[in-house]
Write a structure and sequence with these properties.
The chain has two domains: about 15-245, Type I PLP-dependent aspartate aminotransferase-like (Major domain) (Aspartate Aminotransferase, domain 2, 3-Layer(aba) Sandwich), CATH 3.40.640; about 245-370, Aspartate Aminotransferase, domain 1, CATH 3.90.1150. It has helices at about 15-30, 35-50, 60-70, 85-95, 115-120, 140-150, 200-210, 235-245, 245-265, 300-305, 335-340, 355-370; strands at about 55, 75-80, 100, 125-130, 155, 165, 170, 175-180, 195-200, 270, 280, 290, 345. The protein is built from twelve helices and 13 strands. Strand 2, helix 4 and strand 3 form a beta-alpha-beta unit. Helix 9 (about 245-265) packs parallel to helix 12.
Length: about 375
């Protein structure tokens, strides 16, 4: 039986030679942490995102946590959408703040200016905007204006969105501080790793201290209660090769997403995400997430696809408002999330996928929906 990958990192053969050569140098010198490769990786990310600072961390989750700690904000509320991975919520809590978990916008599966405005109060200090599946919300300018008007920090959780842009602005450069994840399922990978991006000199300086045990250097006095959040040199080498290929990877992902749309857009029994992408926008397509009509059972469709060797996912279900551990941070009803997240389905999409494989997936979906 034909078997597809749902997601898969792409490491070209010529890059493997460079990676192994650099890894040998690391093994020979013993320079495993915070060396030239991490520095080079940070420089490449900053240049690509068009920001002053890029601070590499051990994971996407620690990037969010360190970024929030670096702002110095404590005991304040951060508005965040229920449609995100749990680490977004946990990072707010671990930074000493209070997440306000709210419902999602139907189109972006994230926050909108209207949703944010409804939940601002005197204790609100920030907003965490997640670019879900690589989609940057079209009302980002309204969100910027709203946050400036209310003196709110605006954080980009761009874990899915490296390479995405809107109106020529790259993800990670749009708001006060951005964070990326380089987990193997993401657009590019370092194995495990993350990055903080910002044009704010003070946030950048504090982030570098916080990721290093709370010390400015190994001989300095400790200024923060912190931990070791640094990226390894081995990870940075892999990241260097990946960052150089972002545009190539994004181009291929868009070709695949366009093929999905060509095949599926005529089906009235589902909604394709391309319908919400602006001409001024470049989507990174972390996942190709369809929404199935209420007349069909999402679970039955997923099972039918798996029988044909096609894996799918339901990121993120259960949603954060359905996680018992976060129950004290719920302040709202979640009608949109409760509806959409019971009908959405992430289809296979990765750089090594072929157009023939996309057609195979689409034929299987058509077969289920039209039987």
């Amino acid at each position: 039986m034909r078997k597809l990958y749902r997601s898969k990192p792409h490491i070209p053969q010529q890059d493997k030679k460079f990676i192994l050569s650099e890894w040998k140098d690391i093994l020979d010198t013993g320079m495993f942490a915070q060396g030239k490769n991490v520095e080079n990786f940070e420089k490449l990310v900053a240049e690509y995102c068009n920001v002053k600072h890029a601070i590499a961390t051990s994971s996407g989750g620690t990037a969010v946590e360190v970024a929030l700690m670096a702002t110095g904000i404590k005991n304040k509320k951060f508005i965040v959408c229920t449609q995100t991975f749990v680490v977004s919520i946990s990072a707010i809590i671990r930074s000493g703040n209070i997440p306000v978990i709210v419902d999602m916008d139907e189109k972006s599966q994230g926050l909108s200016a209207n949703i944010i405005a409804k939940h601002i109060d005197s204790d609100t200090a920030g907003v965490m905007l997640v670019h879900m599946a690589g989609h940057i919300t079209s009302d980002y300018k309204e969100i910027q204006h709203l946050c400036r008007e209310n003196n709110l920090l605006l954080v980009e959780d761009a874990a899915h969105a490296v390479g995405a842009s809107i109106d020529g602005n790259k993800a990670g450069s749009i708001f006060d501080v951005g964070t990326f994840s380089f987990f193997p399922t993401k657009i590019v990978t370092t194995g495990e790793g993350g990055v903080i991006t910002t044009n704010d000199d003070e946030i950048a300086e504090q982030a570098r201290i916080i990721r290093n045990y709370g010390c400015k250097d190994y001989r300095a006095n400790c200024t923060h209660i912190s931990n070791n959040f640094k990226m390894q040199e081995l990870s940075a080498v892999l990241g260097i090769t990946q960052i150089r290929r972002i545009d190539e990877f994004i181009s291929k992902r868009n070709v695949l997403a366009d093929r999905y749309y060509t095949n599926l857009k005529s089906l009235k029994s589902l909604i394709c995400p391309n319908d919400y992408v602006l001409e001024s926008q470049i989507h990174s397509w972390w996942h190709y997430m369809i929404v199935v009509s209420k007349t069909f059972n999402r679970t039955e469709l997923a099972e039918a696809l798996l029988e044909k060797g096609i894996p799918t996912a339901t990121a993120y279900k259960p949603a954060c408002h359905e996680q018992p551990i976060f129950k004290e941070y719920l302040i709202d009803e979640y009608p949109v999330a409760d509806d959409i997240l019971n009908r959405h389905l992430a289809l296979p999409l990765h750089v090594e996928m072929t157009l023939d494989e996309v057609d195979f997936v689409c034929d299987a979906i058509k077969g289920f929906l039209t039987k």
